[in-house]
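Per-record layout

source: Olivibacter oleidegradans
name: Metallophosphoesterase family protein
length: 317
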Amino acid sequence: MNYQRRNFLKGAGLLSASSLLAFANLSAFAAEKNKKNIKRALRIAHLTDIHLLNEANPKAAFAKVLKDVNTLSDKPDLIINTGDSLMDMNNKTKEEVTNLWTAWDEVIQYNHLPVKSCIGNHDVWYLSSEHAAYGTSKDDAYYGKQWVKQKLGLPGEYYTFDKGGWRFIALDSIHYVTDKGGYTFGEEQLEWLKDQLSNTPKDMHVLIFSHVPIISVTPLLYAAQRKPAKELGFPGGDQHVDVMDVKKIFKESGKVKVALSGHVHYVDQVDYLGVCYYCGGAVSGNWWNGVLDDFPPAYSILDLYEDGSSRYETIYY
């Protein structure tokens, strides 16, 4: 029995314990809301950083997560996937990426819930000049973000939809600007966001989801595990460098209540100026090599309420 398989089985008890605790906390929060006659609007399963490989153990683990989510007695209304669905589309041949999507198509059949996704940095197919040897061209219709948009059924790189009295806005984090020091949404997308928020009814609450965190403690702590504190700058590779612009938009709108993200493979919850920022742990954990720093593989359950409040619980497996 190999190391990955041993640890997958060994984690079954941890999964059971964390699952029981998570649902106990969700139930306790719901009970408090019920006393005030505030109803739950939606239950969301938040999956992020799946990094699926066409290998037995990652496929078995992802299948288990989907089966667990789909067989809950109090089933989620929706799955939100905040990106990095495949291990890596970056700088890979078309054949290699096709192999990864084959694994995705195989495992996703275990899911029967609606899924809404956004784009992660590893979901973008780009090439180097060496791929000319494979006959792969940058003129391919699947190039860039086109392939992931098609496979995950995204209506655009950023988009919006309504469900359960909430408005959901999917944003595209994957605009890395070297001169600005990291990931940004870009002016065009932020103008679109402002327009969407201004046209949202006053009594409707908004959930934003993006791959890269907007506000989070996890990027700094991830960096601090790897560099002395005096060498740390703003962690623009793991957090949006246009955070102040986005924060201003959220504050002026007053409608954004929740922001989901992934990317860092850590878990945190930050309540800042009336917005709950939830960074979810990775389904793949340490890219299918067990625990990353202090964080085992995980997925989360998010309950949204009609008053704009929420409860977020993470299940480790």
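summary: The domain at 3-305 is CATH 3.60.21.10 (Purple Acid Phosphatase; chain A, domain 2). The helical segments are 3-10, 12-35, 56-70, 94-107, 146-152, 187-198, 218-224, 243-253.
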